[in-house]
Design brief:
Elements (H helix, E strand, L loop, with lengths): L15 E5 L8 H14 L7 H15 L19 E5 L9 E3 L2 H24 L6 H25 L15 H25 L4 H21 L5 H32 L3 H26 L14 H25 L36 H5 L9 H15 L27
Antiparallel strand pairs: 1-2, 2-3
Helix pairs in contact: 1-2, 2-3, 3-4, 4-5, 5-6, 6-7, 7-8, 7-9, 8-9
Length: 419
């Protein structure tokens, strides 16, 4: 099974802190605190199963929904929305947290962190030996789930935040766009892998590779206006993947044209494929010295990249040999255009995410028992919060466990891995 995505190592796990300022509540606050703590205990380890994580996420969000909307007045903002202060770091901005006394900020941050877990989960599964079809399905589903979580954050919740998102923070539209497109592109890599393993037509493989390259390009383009010292490594990775899949697209288009006895055009496709493979080789070198967050890998050592060059050379030699002996066709100056299929066969979409139903603990009586009258005015709270943040300082990095080894050769047709 060909697994080429590279999610999971391009982000550090987000960090957080929480300050509770509830007074006189009759709700079982311990249940909420324990549900949150259980979820946080699972996030640093991608070795846990997705069922276990989803159960913890649902349990926490079901208890947390009343901090967003009042259970006794559907559609109305909850009086509890601003009673808790949350501190979360941002992926690109180091260990200094952003603090907001806003339940929406907590939902946004927690969903993004779960999305990062799914990306790391996909990387872990794809990094093991002996990838099965069930493994590939889980990788595919994990990446779609990650994309769906981030898309829900963007579409539903970021607009509800009272303050503008931090530039280059996790709520920055550019960061979100890059993340969604990376996840969907990596999920589509699994779709393309299946097409190759099942020996689908070269024309279909070319179209899928072209779509995958476009997704990586869109992700890379979203980062162009961000600080290179923060995103250069991430950007080079996305550009590298775009170049590799363009090379794949021209390779398969060349095979398809050769099968149609269009040998001259096939040769030109393979020449174009080699050009993009050369660009990918150069991007590997640039990536090695790039700045930015995330652990480094060595993409030029991965089997999926090493095998592509010889494949291109063999196909080109075959085309040139047959053209010299049989076809005698002129090689065009311009490369044939890559195809896009009218149907959506094989194209990946984010998995839709929805908030769970409120916990049965939230009754109108329970909600009414919350006393928010002693919380003070918002301006005074902001001053106290600023003083507290200065005293609390940075949050320590989260220690992650069970990182996968993606530098080893994989036991599959193309040697592709999640890096």
């Amino acid at each position: 099974m060909q697994l080429c995505p590279g999610s999971g190592r391009w982000y550090g796990t987000k960090q957080l802190g929480l300050v509770c300022r509830l007074h006189g509540t009759s709700l079982h606050y311990d249940e909420l605190r324990q549900a949150r703590q259980r979820l946080l205990e699972l996030l640093p380890d991608a070795g846990h199963g997705s069922v276990e994580l989803e159960s913890a996420l649902t349990a926490y969000l079901a208890l947390f929904t009343a901090f967003l909307q009042a259970p006794d007045e559907p559609g109305q903002e909850s009086k509890l929305r601003h009673v808790l202060r949350f501190r979360w770091t941002h992926t690109l901005l180091g260990n200094t947290p952003e603090a907001r006394q806003d339940a929406v900020f907590e939902v946004v941050s927690m969903c993004q962190n779960v999305a990062l877990w799914y990306m790391k989960r996909a990387a872990r599964i794809a990094g093991k030996e002996g990838i099965t079809m069930e493994d590939a399905k889980e990788v595919h589903g994990s990446l779609r789930r990650a994309a769906g979580l981030v898309k829900a954050v963007h579409d539903r919740y970021i607009g509800q935040l009272q303050d503008e998102p931090l530039k280059e923070g996790d709520c920055d539209t550019r960061v979100i766009t890059a993340t969604i497109n990376q996840c969907t592109a990596e999920a589509q890599e699994v779709t393309m892998a299946r097409a190759i393993e099942l020996k689908h037509s070269a024309g279909l493989c070319s179209a899928l590779a072209h779509e995958t390259s476009k997704m990586f390009t869109t992700a890379a383009d979203a980062l162009r206006s961000l600080d290179p010292s923060k995103v250069e490594r991430w950007s080079k990775y996305l550009q590298l993947k775009a170049a590799v899949y363009t090379a794949y697209a021209y390779n398969y288009l060349g095979e398809n044209l050769l099968a149609e006895d269009k040998c001259g055009e096939a040769i030109r496709c393979l020449q174009e494929s080699k050009k993009f493979y050369g660009e990918a080789e150069e991007l590997c070198k640039q990536y090695a010295t790039a700045k930015g967050v995330g652990a480094k890998v060595k993409p030029e050592r991965l089997l999926f990249f090493r095998k592509l060059g010889p494949v291109l050379n063999r196909t080109l030699e075959k085309c040139e040999r047959e053209n010299g002996f049989i076809y005698h066709q002129k090689v065009p100056y311009d490369a044939p255009p890559l195809e896009l299929r009218d149907n959506t066969y094989g194209l990946v979409a984010p998995e839709e995410f929805g908030m769970p139903a409120p916990s049965p603990l939230w009754t109108p009586v329970t909600f009414a028992a919350f006393d928010v009258s002693r919380l003070g005015d918002r301006a005074a709270d902001a001053k106290k919060a600023a003083a507290a943040e200065k005293a609390e300082g940075d949050l320590p990095p989260v220690k992650e466990v069970n990182e996968n080894d993606t530098d080893k050769d994989q036991d599959n047709h193309s040697g592709c891995v999640l890096s």
